[in-house]
Write a structure and sequence with these properties.
The protein is α/β, with parallel strands linked by helices. Helices cover 37% and strands 17% of the residues. Bound molecules: beta-D-ribofuranose and calcium ion.
């Protein structure tokens, strides 16, 4: 039996005695202390806004940036600018890797505009840049809070892989990783085989997929079923607050080329995994030089697993109407 709903969240013992109902128990059991590793990016920006709007489920303890959609200097400035816009000066931003592990320059996305936020340039100055490199910030935080931190990479996974290599105990001390990337059972969006985040740094994805950490993959299999619609855009554009209004403007041009709610789905999963369905699989990345470079190959049948254990929960589907309603509720639109 492969496809299942994620309604098997752990319940903490003794809660009933303290007068909490099932819903409260589930909420607490799934609260995540998150490091958001990102490359903003228009959909990264919406993901961040969603995370900030869900403090009951997601506590962002830091943002780390990586080269991806646009170069590192832009992703870092955009992350700082977005936090300034949200008036969240308490969340630190740490810049990470400026290039993938095996290539001297990354592959850029054309979807997000030259500077990453669809033509909008935000003032980052209210949010200072953290002194530590992103890799060291990740290591320090995880080792200081063993078993507590969820990493949420929504760009190429260079920082995460290098943190695992630099600190071999990192994997054992993470709670889990929920990443946006890959295309297990559908074509890619960058090549016929590969999704953008994995294509940019497949070696990094390989390190993460073979780390033994509890992994959830939010890839194109699901994000292609979560499409921005006109009502969401209109609700954002006509919102009173500045952040949703600006994001609505960014999304209007972005979604004309790519209407998928890629990165927001990763945050939505953290907030409410019961919106989604998925399958456990053994996922590996093609790091060869052929046409499948960057492809995430998912093995699910006994024959294909050939004795290997699943290393990843691959999220495969969501109801478009439900996810849009969920977003509007959470963003108070
Ligand atoms: C991923 O690639 C980027 O362009 C988006 O921000 C998202 O993380 C989708 O393939
Ligand atoms: Ca991204």
């Amino acid at each position: 039996m492969w496809l299942h709903r994620n309604n098997d969240l752990p319940l903490w013992p003794g809660f009933g005695e303290r007068g909490m109902d099932i819903k409260e128990r589930r909420t607490l059991a799934r609260q995540h202390k998150v490091i958001l590793d990102c490359d903003p990016g228009v959909d990264d920006a919406l993901a961040l806004m969603l995370a900030l709007a869900a403090p009951d489920a997601v506590k962002i303890i830091g943002i780390t940036t990586v080269a991806g959609n646009v170069p590192l200097e832009h992703t870092t400035r955009n992350a700082r600018g977005l936090l300034a816009l949200a008036d969240r000066l308490d969340i630190p931003v740490h810049a990470g890797c400026a290039r993938p592990i095996m290539r001297t320059t990354g592959h850029r996305s054309v979807m997000h505009g030259g500077e990453g936020l669809g033509g909008v340039v935000l003032d980052p100055s209210a949010v200072p840049l953290g002194q530590a490199h992103a890799v060291d910030f990740i290591i320090d935080q995880v080792m200081a809070h063993p078993g507590e931190i969820t990493l949420c990479p929504i760009g190429p996974m260079t920082n995460v892989a290098l943190a695992m290599i630099k600190e071999p105990r990192l994997s054992k001390n993470l709670r889990e990783i929920v990443f946006m990337g890959g295309a297990a059972f559908c074509p890619g969006n960058t090549t016929a085989a590969a999704e953008f985040n994995i294509y940019v740094d497949p070696q990094a994805a390989h390190v993460v997929l073979s780390s033994g950490v509890k992994l959830t993959m939010i890839g194109l299999d699901v994000t292609r079923k979560a499409l921005i619609d006109r009502d969401l855009l209109n609700a954002l554009i006509s919102a009173q607050a500045e952040m949703p209004r600006l994001l609505g403007g960014m999304l209007a041009s972005y979604s004309a080329g790519d209407p998928c709610l890629h990165d927001p789905c990763a945050i939505a999963w953290l907030i409410n995994p019961m919106l989604f369905e998925g399958v456990d699989a053994f996922v590996e990345v093609d790091c060869g030089s052929g046409p499948n470079f960057g492809k995430t190959v998912a093995h699910i049948s006994d024959r294909h697993l050939a004795g290997r254990k699943p290393n990843c929960h691959v999220v495969t589907s969501v109801d478009n109407v439900e996810i849009l309603q969920f977003l509007r509720n959470r963003l108070s639109l």
